[in-house]
Amino acid sequence: MDLSPAPAGWDPAAALEQVKARVHIAEAASGRAGSGVRVLVATKTWDADAAAAVVRAGGTLVGESRMQELDIKGEALRAAGARVHVIGQLQRNKAATAVQYADCVQTVDHARLAERLSRLCLEAERELDVMVQVNVSGEDSKAGVHPDEALAIASAVQALPALTVTGFMTIGLNSRDEDAVREGYARLREIRDQALIRSERGSVGLGSAWELSMGMSQDLEWAVAEGATMVRVGTAVMGPRPPA
Ligand SMILES: *Cc1c(COP(=O)(O)O)cnc(C)c1O
Hints:
Pfam family, one: Ala_racemase_N
Helix content: 40-55%
Protein name: Pyridoxal phosphate homeostasis protein
Bound molecules: pyridoxal-5'-phosphate
InterPro entries: Ala_racemase_N, PLP-binding_barrel, PyrdxlP_homeostasis
Structural class: alpha/beta
Oligomer: single chain
Cofactor: pyridoxal 5'-phosphate
Keywords: Pyridoxal phosphate
């Protein structure tokens, strides 16, 4: 596993401030001033020291994509006081790493994965937050459940012991077409709103599922405008990732 050290001269506190300023401007521009959109820092490909430096600079919410990396960085992230979210596709045979180090798995896209997480959490005597990943862009290459299935899966996952569905996550369309990207984010918001409405009627108990994890370095303004409660930012905080 080739993990990169932080680039020379990198100032994580300043980079974080710049991203938070973008978020605040986007909140104000969309009538959401003070809504507290959180910034999750995506630390994939960066080594444990770089990831821990971001946490110490105030970026306490960290996203890891690959469980091989989380195995390496998990202890350092925990020692630095991070809250770790899994944001990459999670294979069932890697679920134990997530249960060991993560506070939330944002990428639940199958009931069988959720069942495995639930069982491992019961064994570890812990609880775990999860989000349902939805493929709103319709691109075959993207992970996540079909939008029409999202509510049914969320309800099934919520019914499992030790798991709490805190919301929905998506990877947006990779495009500079604002309307097309925002259409996907609006779709995720509608799914979240449906989840909250249904639970008001008392049927499936999805009242905890209010989070919308959407938007990245390139398009976080569009995601905030569509209601994101959390944006996931890598390059804008860490700098460009080295080519794989
Ligand atoms: C890497 C990653 C991000 C951050 O992407 P940037 O373009 O570097 O901001 C966000 N979400 C997921 C799921 C990622 O894997």
